[in-house]
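Is this the right way to post structure tokens for a design question? Let me know if I should format differently. Anyway, here goes:
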């Protein structure tokens, strides 16, 4: 069992082989199962225990499946999507937006969602002492940072909220000089948050949870930023599996998730000891599909 951190490096994940991740041949492996079960997920980089808890998750999953497990952590959703599409990744935790993209690119199937103990939404932030920005309308002509174009909380829902609230053209919003002076993609909620606090961006959109976690970690102070708006509630992140995996393997992975009860893992890796994995359905993600259609984003045909 291994856990590795991948910092937006698609090449590292793509270099994996679906049957070559382990040098230990397992003759008891069920027919059609990969030699190694590769999972991509995200880690709370503000929590020093996150890596250890993800390693524990990998070890527990390995014991449940009976085959080697490797966990790769990344904040780059494209890495996760392309890794599964290439057949190098068997399971990923994805955002609602990434779910539809992974479904289209890799025939991914829902397994379970991370049931939040809080409302999952994004907030719009600026520096705490910025008297010029107090509403979304005040963002006109300012520099702004989204997180990632495959992120629901760092792009999809914030963009939709801006389009609907301010009657903006979704096809023009990222263009310099249309509404914002310039638009950047920071690559991470933490990066956006620190960028605003340091004055690199006038404003940004980030997950509300990230603000709370970074304050608890002492990486930002309460007065460093202020919230000027928020999105609707966002569907929970979900685990998906590659659709071409044997059904007994998919069932075993789902059973593991639905019964996983390690509070320390959920606290360190996902931000809340009260969180657990639960059943997921297509209906849960229909609001995200509607938002993507509003923004003229390609979600793939049925």
């Amino acid at each position: 069992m291994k856990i590795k951190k991948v910092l937006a490096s698609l090449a590292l994940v793509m270099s994996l082989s679906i049957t070559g991740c382990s040098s230990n041949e397992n003759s008891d492996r069920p027919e059609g199962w990969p030699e190694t079960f590769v999972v991509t997920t995200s880690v709370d980089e503000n929590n020093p225990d996150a890596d250890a808890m993800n390693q524990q998750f990998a070890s527990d999953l390995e014991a449940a499946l009976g085959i080697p497990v490797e966990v790769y952590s990344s904040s780059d959703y494209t890495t996760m999507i392309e890794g599964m599409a290439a057949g190098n990744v068997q399971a990923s935790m994805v955002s609602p937006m990434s779910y539809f993209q992974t479904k289209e690119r890799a025939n991914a199937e829902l397994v379970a969602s991370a049931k939040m103990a809080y409302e999952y939404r994004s907030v719009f932030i600026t520096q705490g002492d910025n008297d010029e920005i107090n509403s979304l309308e005040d963002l006109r002509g300012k520099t702004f940072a989204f997180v990632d174009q495959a992120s629901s909380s760092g792009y999809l829902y914030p963009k939709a909220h801006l389009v609907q609230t301010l009657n903006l053209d979704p096809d023009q919003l990222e263009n310099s000089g249309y509404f914002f002076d310039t638009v950047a993609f920071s690559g991470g909620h933490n990066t956006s948050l620190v960028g605003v606090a340091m004055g690199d961006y006038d404003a940004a959109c980030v997950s509300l949870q990230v603000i709370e976690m970074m304050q608890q970690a002492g990486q930002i102070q309460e007065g460093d930023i202020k919230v000027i708006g928020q999105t609707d509630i966002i569907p929970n992140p979900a685990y998906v599996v590659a659709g071409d995996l044997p059904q007994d393997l998919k069932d075993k992975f789902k059973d593991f998730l639905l019964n996983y009860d390690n509070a320390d893992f959920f606290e360190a890796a996902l931000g809340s000891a009260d969180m657990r994995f639960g059943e997921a359905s297509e209906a849960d993600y229909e609001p995200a599909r509607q938002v993507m259609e509003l923004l003229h984003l390609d979600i793939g045909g049925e």
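Format looks fine. Someone answered above. Worth noting: The CA atoms of residues 124 and 205 lie 4 Å apart. Confidence is low (pLDDT under 50) at residues 1-25.
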